[in-house]
Design a protein that fits this description.
313 residues; alpha+beta; oxygen-dependent coproporphyrinogen oxidase; seven-stranded antiparallel sheet; two-stranded antiparallel ribbon; 9 strands
């Protein structure tokens, strides 16, 4: 029988044979620092849009600012799931809705969920910390985007995550150009660690972010990796940080490249319909959504990824 975690501590889970254990606080701090940098960057884009008088969606003329909402389940002594986090959401002139969440959770996996997590069949206790982001722009010519990175400990330890770009008009030359720059930035990050990483994780992304019921990809891809443990935890963490910085650099370029373009009502209609694909993937296939809901995460933060407005034909 496994011991009960003390909810008053920071995820009491000591496993000397899992080197990730020593990085719990360091990883949490990195994800929060990256969140702060990303939020500042996107607020700067909002200010630029106002200064340049960018096209607007209805009455969304003001520069947006992130609203942060903290949640905490660490004090619930009657639960096997504990943790806390902060949901940061902005609605503005450029971003119709963008959310950046950080969370740290620990406890015991439910019996039905243990079979889905490596190492949980040996010991159901876990620790997880990470960042997740989803951006839904106002302008149909500005690509939507998704990013997350995380560290998880069971009786094993690993990193996972990645980023992908979802243009509304994926066959357009402008979308292909933005995606090429997005991919180049991730390729550079991968090359700093292992020349094989980019092709391996790009293919994984293409396979994962695919809608089998529609027979089409969700967007124009990026990279994705999971259960990543090379044997050198510090190198793996450094790679995960570089993945975060790659997204931090690449996506604002894609936004700035298109945010001054005008759009038509027909293009807005196409955007709302295309967003339906995003909803379908997240509710049917996304592992992160399932993991969050099964591990006591904040439901509103988990479903933050949903677009603010969407249609189906």
């Amino acid at each position: 029988m496994s011991e009960t975690l003390d909810p008053k501590t920071f995820g009491t889970l000591i496993r000397d044979h899992v080197p990730h254990d020593s990085l719990k606080e360091t990883a949490r701090h990195w994800f929060e620092t990256l969140r702060d940098r990303i939020c500042a960057s996107y607020e700067a884009i909002e200010d630029e849009a106002v200064a340049k008088n960018s096209p607007v969606l209805r009455d969304k003329t003001e520069a947006g600012r992130f609203k942060r909402t903290a949640w905490d389940r660490s004090a619930d002594e009657n639960s096997n799931l504990h943790g806390s986090g902060v949901m940061s959401v902005m609605r503005g002139r450029v971003f119709e809705k963008v959310g950046v969440n950080v969370s740290t959770v620990w406890g015991e996996f439910s019996p039905e969920f243990r079979k889905n997590m490596p190492g949980a069949d040996v010991d159901p206790r876990f620790f997880a910390t990470g960042i997740s982001l989803v951006a839904h722009p106002c302008n149909p010519h500005v690509s939507a985007a998704h990013f997350n990175t995380r560290m998880i400990i069971t009786s094993n330890g690993w990193f996972g995550g990645g980023g992908d770009i979802t243009p509304i008009f994926p066959d357009s030359e402008e979308a292909k150009a933005d995606a090429a720059d997005f991919h180049d930035t991730f390729r550079d990050a991968c090359m700093r660690h292992d020349p094989a990483y980019y092709e391996r994780f790009k293919a994984w992304c293409d396979e994962y972010f695919y809608l089998p019921h529609r027979g089409e990809p969700r967007g124009l891809g990026g990279i994705f990796y999971d259960h990543f443990s090379s044997g050198d935890v510090h190198n793996d963490f450094a790679f995960t940080k570089d993945v975060g910085l790659a997204f931090y650099e690449a996506y604002p370029r894609a936004v700035r490249s298109r945010m001054m373009q005008a759009w038509t009502e027909a293009e807005r209609e196409a955007q709302l319909i295309r967003r339906g694909r995003y909803v379908e993937f997240n509710l049917i296939h996304d592992r992160g959504t399932v993991f969050g809901l099964k591990t006591g995460g904040n439901t509103e933060a988990i479903l933050m990824s949903m677009p603010p407005e969407v249609k189906w034909p």
